[in-house]
Amino acid sequence: xxxxxxxxxxxxxxxxxxxxxxxxxxxxxxxxxxxxxxxxxxxxxxxxxxxxxxxxxxxxxxxxxxxxxxxxxxxxxxxxxxxxxxxxxxxxxxxxxxxxxxxxxxxxxxxxxxxxxxxxxxxxxxxxxxxxxxxxxxxxxxxxxxxxxxxxxxxxxxxxxxxxxxxxxxxxxxxxxxxxxxxxxxxxxxxxxxxxxxxxx
Amino acid sequence: xxxxxxxxxxxxxxxxxxxxxxxxxxxxxxxxxxxxxxxxxxxxxxxxxxxxxxxxxxxxxxxxxxxxxxxxxxxxxxxxxxxxxxxxxxxxxxxxxxxxxxxxxxxxxxxxxxxxxxxxxxxxxxxxxxxxxxxxxxxxxxxxxxxxxxxxxxxxxxxxxxxxxxxxxxxxxxxxxxxxxxxxxxxxxxxxxxxxxxxxx
Lengths: 201, 201
Hints:
2 copies of one chain form a homodimer.
Chain A: H1 2-11, H2 25-50, E1 54-62, E2 68-76, H3 82-111, H4 116-149, H5 164-197
Antiparallel strand pairs in A: 1-2
């Protein structure tokens, strides 16, 4: 019935799509793949961040007479910045969430359908998570940028000229969480399209 | 027809809602109101941020003999922090976007309907804007928090004990942009619900 309708419409040269009760199956596959990528991005981002701690030894002059040098060991830790703590929490939430929705998407792929109500709830949760993850990316990005460049106006000195490994990890983690945000945008886009496919025209 | 069907369904004790071709009119009204609030929040946030500049005069000792005090004038500007510049740009985009979609929502309210395609595109744009605004809130929040508390580990000194008006403005602006993010979440929630209302069950 839908088949002949499509052909009739195409025959008359109209561009209107016929009412499809479901989005194509490739949508469900893309959904599963994207959710797996989201999980991977969240896990990588958290792991790279929590392994960023770097211990460095500096030579510091002592105010003795004659002046002697002493060795001071300092450790740069992600836990020292509230921004990075929030980042790790947010990306961990994203990781756990992506496992749950990955399983739901896999179930929908096998059952060849997902209830409309569940689909719209998943979109809303995706949107909330997007807000959390992009805020975390911005937060960590702001502190990371200060670490890289410093700010002369507030005399906040950059620290990336001393802690190389630390900054490499932080930067990498932020880039991966940016990728996670983009994946979430694509997931929302895909599912809104899938939802609108169910609306008869 | 829908009325009697609903009653019949309710009579049989089933919880299934009847198929409605459109979301109730109150949704369109709420959409218009929320978009106006979003516009107000974006404008307030930008205005409070750009009026935050504060000039302060400090007494600084000069290394003369005898030591004399000299007056130094310093200005704290939002433009000095890349995070706040991004914040102002992002919230300005949100303000302009909210005017356009406010007019579209008003038009839909008067015409009593919005095409499904336009509605899904507006949801997707809302989601993108949510990403931008929440990232801006996070970015400005991270720098604002450093200004308020500083970070002893990186010896970034707090500046809010010297620039009170500046910090008040920054803080207020961040809170208002957080409200803008929440409004965007509600807008997406509302419109996804409106979209799913069009799906026959």
